[in-house]
Amino acid sequence: MRYFNKKLVIVAALMATTGTAQAADVEVLHWWTSGGEAAALNVLKDDLANQDIGWNDMPVAGGGGESAMTVLRARVTAGDAPTAVQLLGFDILDWAAEGALANLDAVAAQEGWDAVVPPALQNFAKYDGHWISAPVNVHSTNWVWANKGILDDLSIDEPSSWEEFVAAMQKVQDSGKTALAHGGQAWQEATMFDGVVLSVGGVDFYRKAFIDLDPAALGSQQMVEAFNRMATLRSFVDDNFSGRDWNLASAMVINDEAAFQIMGDWAKGEFLNAGKVPDRDFLCFRVPGSAGAVSFNSDQFAMFNVSSPEAQAAQGEMARAIMSPTFQSAFNVVKGSVPARTDVPNDDFDACGKKGMTELAAASARGTLVGSMAHGHANRAAVKNAIYDVVTAHFNGEYDAETATEELVTAVDLAQ
């Protein structure tokens, strides 16, 4: 097999042995640059510092990670890969297929990862049966974040159906405030689309459309309805949304300027960083109509091939640190996500964190846990980007719902 060669066997052996080489600093490429994300990342930096492993930070701004991937490709092409890189979903498997990633089997065996990491995550953390990345968290994308004060002032109850959600947004808009905080970037519109498609047709429809890429599902009346719902959301967004970063949209909800934001649970990190408390200052609930379903993505750190034994040793220690139960709890409490291990207690998590852990476990058990299209866990980048193009073009008024549905079928077909 081309992927595992003698060099990687040596890497695995080094990672399995303590004292073989003194761990060096790690150079880490990532896109965690917002306040809440940076606070969470400091948990990992501090953990490694306690092991005398320095952190050379290489942040590349951009919430969807597209810019970071461009930088990574240039670094790898130049033969200068970082020691560790934040990656998502199919991007991990694509790099593994190129033979670019180190083998983490030895660390995984020592730490018992197979028994505690959910199978849905292992699908992206393993390649050809071998561990090639360390999952740091599980995010889910079909969340709504709501300003509790605005809802209370307007006597709006937490909506449980799509119709109630639309009525709530209309009431907020009529009051003079922005109903839906949004940043006009393709990945943000795709994130909303995750929840909207689940609200229309549930997990079975979502899976047929985004994972199976079934042309009948992609071109169905249900998909037309999903685009119609996106147009409804567009009508509740303020005029200055274009190009706004996601965390600035979160700040609108935090600062009493907007009532709702549809965003993954990394948004909670912004609320916590601002001193806000779940159920007192803000609410968290699934996109109305999608309750019971969870669309997930998982940030993972992949270790790229490096020649220095010291750097290889540092990679092993970083992977070990990322997967320790203590770190998984401390990091995810701050980040807004939930642990990538099933054996981490929820004692230190807030109300939204506990809800997320409970709903993730339930969805995994009943088969309603699906990979996020918007965040590269439903299909490979070419397909994801093709869907992005259609969704954002529709959101910006280039297509009506029927035309967008037709364009979606064509775009996905050409991308495969």
Walk me through the structure.
This protein is globular. The chain has 19 helices and 14 strands. Helix content is 52%, strand content 13%. It has 416 residues and is of the alpha/beta class. It folds into two domains: 4-138 and 298-353, Periplasmic binding protein-like II (D-Maltodextrin-Binding Protein, domain 2, 3-Layer(aba) Sandwich); 140-295 and 357-415, Periplasmic binding protein-like II (D-Maltodextrin-Binding Protein, domain 2, 3-Layer(aba) Sandwich). The strands form four sheets. It has a five-stranded mixed β-sheet, sandwiched between helices. A four-stranded mixed β-sheet has the order 9-10-8-11, with helices on both faces. The two termini are 25 Å apart. A hairpin with a 2-residue loop joins strand 4 (126-127) and strand 5. The model is unreliable at 1-21 (pLDDT under 50).
